[in-house]
Amino acid sequence: MVIRMDDIHTPTVASGPTLNRYSNGVAKEKMTFKQLTDEKDRLEGELSALSAVLDSHGVNMNTGLTTFDGYPRADIDVAQIRTTRARIIHIRNDYKALMSRIELAVQAQFAENASRPSQSTTTMSQSTTSSTNIPPQQAAPSTPFAKVNSVVDGSPAAEAGLRAQDLITRFGGATWLNHDKLSKVAEVVNQNEGRPIAISIKRGEETLSMALTPRRNWGGRGMLGCHLLPI
C-alpha cells in the first residue's frame, strides 16, 4: 500500500473494498451466512482496536496533525496515526462490501418470512366463499412511520445505505402499527447490537430493503449514527 504525503492529515488510499477472501482463506463468494457474520465481528473488533489507538493519542479521523505553521506535531506519533487512519479506511471499505453480502442474505430471509402470511391468506381465501377485505396488518410494512433526518458519514446507518429523507416502513419488528413514537425502534436496536436488522424504506418511488447492524465504537454517538423523526 502506497500512501502519498501530499496531505499529512488524510492518507490517500484506494476507495474500493480490499477484502477478497475470508480470514480463514475462504473466498468471499463461497462464505456461508455464519462465516459472513463471523467476518463482520472480526472487522468490527479490528475497527474498535484501531479506534482505541487513535483515542490513546487524543485524536480522531479528522484531527489536525500539524502545528499552526505547518510542521508535524511533536506531541503525538504522526506516523502511527496516519497508518492507523489508512487502515481504518480500508477496513471500512471491506466492512461496507461485507455488509452488502449480508444484506442480500437477510433480504432473502426477510422475503421468505414475508411470504408466509400471504400464502396462508391465499389458502384461506380459496377455501371460503365469503369475500373479505385485507386486514390492515398486512398493509403495515408499506406505511411509513419515520423519516431519516440525517445520517453521519461512516456510521452503521451510512454503511447500510440509509440516506437523509428516506422513509422507514419497517425496522425489524417495528411498523407504523406498533412503533409507539419510535420506542419500538429503540427496543429493536438494543436487542440486536452487533446483529443485522432487516429494514424496509421508501426512497422517492422506490421501495428498498437493507440490513443495518447497530454497533458501538464506530466513531460517533449511539449505535446507528442517524437521526429518525416520527411521522
From TrEMBL:
One Pfam assignment: Nas2_N
Coiled-coil intervals, chain numbering: 26-53
One record GO biological process: proteasome regulatory particle assembly
Composition bias, Low complexity: 118-132
Cellular component, GO annotation: cytoplasm; nucleus; proteasome complex
InterPro entries documented for this protein: Nas2_N, PDZ_6, PDZ_sf, PSMD9
Residues of the Nas2 N-terminal domain: 33-110
Annotated spans, Disordered: 111-147
Domain PDZ residue range list: 148-203
Keywords assigned: Chaperone, Coiled coil, Proteasome
Family: Belongs to the proteasome subunit p27 family.
Name of this protein: Probable 26S proteasome regulatory subunit p27
Phylogenetic lineage: Eukaryota, Fungi, Dikarya, Ascomycota, Pezizomycotina
